[in-house]
């Protein structure tokens, strides 16, 4: 085809057409092979071309693909709800199905506001979030996102929410222990709540591990436990945005499981259907749903495709696949191996300031000078150079830059499918090493 009429991420750039995928590999129509080192957008977490999922898709399509949620429930959606309730921590037993992570976080925001209204506390409408966070691209979700680059153009349209600092161990104040740093960062939430007034605040939202805006930044132990205490103390709901971390990615079913913290609302997306269909969810506790049931009885959110049987059947098949192949446990084991290899790279290559991660959600941060941790100016596009060079070399990695302009450096995410073997990790790291060394050479 000579001319494209599709609006691409970068206008004017030509993208190869994908032909097919198998396991951790994708192939373009010219026959070039790529290691999917980031599961696309940290999404294709069970790998490509899985027969069982294709079969579940076909089976459901032959029964019924679409029935509107105001008319019918379905076996697929009921089983998916039950499965998620059995996986989720605490009293998070209820799922509201949507189609993207942005919709899931925005629905969580709405449910939080509605909950307080139905409790007779209608002034509690604002959210607290963190800099260097990403909760989605729609206006409500972007209002809660502290991703400087993605907000910039739309600031006048965004809700005015208080924002606190992220826990960012690599760039913590000199001489501060991780333990001190955990409470130092969490206590900022208490300060923000007191400044704004608990009567104004509906919820605090955070990613368990900072993804798209920081590159797999893992908080110090104790941080989320303290956050939970503060939220309880001031009647502020805690929303865990597990769109990137959920469904096994970090080596536990959900990121919060690492710290035994039980959120009031939890969002899922990406790995929930592993890219086989658009599917996401907002999960809520019994307490929240009981309150709304006793009140108006109607959650004021939803989309045409919410809870459609086709996507539910696909997502259910994905969760069954994750269970049957022990992919949560596998993510922990393979993730530890990948992180070790990445840390070896970081020791060897001056351009890499830090290698970090949890489970199979890993990241590299690039710096101008390792000792001072000085970042490159974003205008230099160092992470983008790595991503482009990796692509040339047949390796896909994910950008995680721009979350904290002026402070944070350039980062990338490495998050292959949870099915990756040890030999495949070796192959991935070899290509990554070659790529980063090439970029380092180009930067001289
Ligand atoms: N929340 C988190 C933590 C994410 O990482 C993302 C996407 O990267 C979103 C929400 C938004 O999800 P989506 O792109 O599916 O709208």
From TrEMBL:
Keyword NAD included in the entry's annotation: no
Family annotation (PROSITE patterns): AA_TRANSFER_CLASS_3
Plastid listed as a keyword: no
Protein name: Aspartate aminotransferase family protein
Taxon lineage: Bacteria, Bacillati, Bacillota, Bacilli, Bacillales
Protein keywords: Aminotransferase, Pyridoxal phosphate, Transferase
Pfam families: Aminotran_3 (PF00202)
UniProt family annotation: Belongs to the class-III pyridoxal-phosphate-dependent aminotransferase family.
GO MF terms, alphabetically ordered: transaminase activity
SUPFAM superfamilies: PLP-dependent transferases
InterPro entries cross-referenced by the UniProt entry: Aminotrans_3, Aminotrans_3_PPA_site, PyrdxlP-dep_Trfase, PyrdxlP-dep_Trfase_major, PyrdxlP-dep_Trfase_small
């Amino acid at each position: 085809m000579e001319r494209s009429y599709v609006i691409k991420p970068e206008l004017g750039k030509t993208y190869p057409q994908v032909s097919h995928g198998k396991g951790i590999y994708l192939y373009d129509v010219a026959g070039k092979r790529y290691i999917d080192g980031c599961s696309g957008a940290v999404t294709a977490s069970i790998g490509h071309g899985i027969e069982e999922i294709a079969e579940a898709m076909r089976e459901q399509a032959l029964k019924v693909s679409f029935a509107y949620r105001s008319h019918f429930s379905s076996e697929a959606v009921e089983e998916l709800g039950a499965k998620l309730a059995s996986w989720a921590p605490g009293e998070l037993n209820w799922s509201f199905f949507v189609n993207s992570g942005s919709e899931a976080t925005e629905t969580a925001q709405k449910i939080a506001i509605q909950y307080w209204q139905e409790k007779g506390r209608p002034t509690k409408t604002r959210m607290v979030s963190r800099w260097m966070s990403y909760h989605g691209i729609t206006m409500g979700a972007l209002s809660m996102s502290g991703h400087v680059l993605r907000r910039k153009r739309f600031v006048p349209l965004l809700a005015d929410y208080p924002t606190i600092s992220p826990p960012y161990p690599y760039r913590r104040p000199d001489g501060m222990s991780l333990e001190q740093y955990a409470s130092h960062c969490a206590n900022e939430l208490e300060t923000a709540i007191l400044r704004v007034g608990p009567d104004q605040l509906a919820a605090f939202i955070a990613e368990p591990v900072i993804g798209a805006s920081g590159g797999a930044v893992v908080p110090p132990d104790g941080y989320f436990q303290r956050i939970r205490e503060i939220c309880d103390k001031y009647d502020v709901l805690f929303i865990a945005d597990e769109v990137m971390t959920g469904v096994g990615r970090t080596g536990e079913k959900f990121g919060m499981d690492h710290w035994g913290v039980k959120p009031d609302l939890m969002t899922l997306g990406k790995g929930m259907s592993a890219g086989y269909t658009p599917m996401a969810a907002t999960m809520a506790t019994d307490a929240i749903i009981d309150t709304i049931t006793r009140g108006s009885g109607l959650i004021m959110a939803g989309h045409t495709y919410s809870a459609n049987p086709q996507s539910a059947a696909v997502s259910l098949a994905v969760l069954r696949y994750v269970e049957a192949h022990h992919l949560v446990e596998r993510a922990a084991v393979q993730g530890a191996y990948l992180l070790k290899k990445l840390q070896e790279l970081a020791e060897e290559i001056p351009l890499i300031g830090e290698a970090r991660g949890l489970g199979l959600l890993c990241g590299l941060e690039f710096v101008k000078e390792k000792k001072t941790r000085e970042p490159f100016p974003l205008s230099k596009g160092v992470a983008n150079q790595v991503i482009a060079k990796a692509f040339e070399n047949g390796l896909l990695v994910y950008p995680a830059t721009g979350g904290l302009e002026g402070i944070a450096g350039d980062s990338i995410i490495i998050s292959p499918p949870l099915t990756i073997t040890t030999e495949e990790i070796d192959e991935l790291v070899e290509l990554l090493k070659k790529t980063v060394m090439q970029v380092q050479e180009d930067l001289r």
